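Late entry, coenzyme A complex.
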Amino acid sequence: MHNIAIYPGTFDPATNGHLDIIERAVPLFAQVIVAVTCDSSKPTLFSIQDRIQMIKDVTQNYSNVRVEEFSGLLVDYACKKEANVIIRGLRAVSDFEHEFQMASLNKRLNPKIETLFMMTHEDNFFLSSSAIKEIAALGGSLAGFVPNIIEERIKQRLSN
Ligand code: COA
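Prediction complete; structure with ligand written out below:
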C-alpha cells in the first residue's frame, strides 16, 4: 500500500465530522496528511498553529497521520508530498456543487491526482465549524460535536 492521501481544510476547529473522515481514511492509506490551510478566505477563530495542534492532539494514536500547514495550490502541495489522492467529506447535497467544482478544477490542474469523496457519518451531517463556534459563543454544550479537548480550547479562546 503506497497511496498517500491529503485531507485538506480550514479546520477552525476540527469537529467530530472531520475526525470520522480521518479515522476511516487511516486503514485505507499508507499515510494520511491532514493539510491545514494557512490562507483561508474565511476569518478564523484559531491561529494556524492552534488548528494544527488540536488535530495533532486528537489523532496522536494514529501512526500514519501527519498534520501540516499548507498554502498555495492544493495540487502543488499534494505533488510535493507525492500524494495521489485528495480526500473530501460530503455532508449533504448542498456540498456537492462546491466540491464538484473544486474536484474538477484540481483534476484539470493535475490529472494524476484523484479526489475521493467520503460520506460524512449521518451523526455529523449537520455539523460545521461555524455552527460549533456559534453554539459555544452562546453558551451551549458541544458534547458529541467535538472531542472534549477541543471543546475546552474553544471555551478558553472565547473567554480571552
Ligand atoms: N463534517 C463536518 N463538517 C465538515 C466536514 C465533515 N466531514 N467537512 C467539511 N466540513 C465543514 C467545515 O467545518 C467547514 O465549515 P465552516 O464553513 O463553517 O468553517 C465547511 O465544511 C467547509 O470545509 P473546509 O474544510 O473549510 O473546506 P473549504 O471548502 O473551505 O476548502 C480548501 C478548503 C483548503 C480545501 C480549499 O480552500 C483549497 O483547496 N485551497 C487551496 C487553493 C486551491 O488549490 N484552489 C484551487 C482549487 S479550488
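The chain has a mean pLDDT of 95. Will revisit in the morning.
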